[in-house]
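Meet the record:
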Amino acid sequence: MTTVTQLRNPASRPATEVALDLSKAFAKKAHEVDIGAGFPHENIRLVHEAGLSALTAPVELSGRGAKLAEAADVIRIIAQGEPSTALILIMQYINLATLPASRWPTHLVSKVIRDAVDNGALINALRVEPELGTPIRGGLPAATARRVANGWSISGRKIYSTGVEGLTWAIVWARTDEEDVRFGGFLVPVNAEGFTIEKTWNPLGMRATGSHDAVLQDVFVPLDHAVDIRRPSEWDARGEGQAAWFGILPGALYTGVAEAARDWLVRFLKERVPSNLGQPLATVPRIQQALGEIEELLAVNRRLIGSAARDIDEGRSVSQSEAGLIKVVTTENAILAVEKALKLSGNHGISRNNPLERHHRDVLCGRIHSPQEDTVRIGAGKLALGI
């Protein structure tokens, strides 16, 4: 079992260096994690011991205070080793970075962040429902919060709940039972009575995210745990401060997957010596050009993600539309890069004895995350048309 002491003094080193050590350790067992489709508890434990659980939490609350550019680099590097772990961390990093500027009660922000710093506690928002789908496309959740003495009683079902199997805190999106309906986030401890997990997650790729169904039956939370509920007209698609992070971090993750695919391909091309050629495939100009096309896609992604993240970190705004376009372009580039690698490797690439087929399954999941291609491009088109 890998221990944090094997990561060479993580507290005194840059987060990206620590992430690289973690990524290498994760890669050794990524095949087993994929096959077993279980939550990556060991990976998350190592992330915490290495000091990266609260990477984006503010320094004043004992976090590392990382901004978006650093977080994107860490996510990309970890995804090279095991992308399901990286996706769970995306949700953690977004919440820890944006909660301090949110409408949440200050004491609850501090409680959640301290829990992440001290205990590696994970947090994520549970939004998607069987009938509603993702609320980013509009509509009210079916999950209902009913006012009771001293608090709220919440009932409903959430699906595709990333990381729910390993969460300590869930931000459950629900509507109130008030005549003037409000909806939004209710902070719920996952170990609360009436909160159960149904293991329904069995996907093609990103198999270890533990994104099972969460079922709430009369789950009680105190009154102040209605951390941010508003009338429908008062909400934007993502909530203030999160759109840019949701636009950039998924692209970083799937770029990392594509880089792992590229690294495998490079080794294959150097080692593969067909008898009719008598030398490695890497010496063939056509192969070199095709590999250059993959490098082109990855270079564009890294530059685009890095530039946009630095703009945000330095206070230059990136619109919600532009953030969505960045997500679409970078994930599509990553998918195309892996598909090109498959073409070059032939049957070897689709063999389950090699990791490239896993990288292909994982990278395809980039299309699923919100915001999705159609909503992003329709929104950008309307914006351009002034509609």
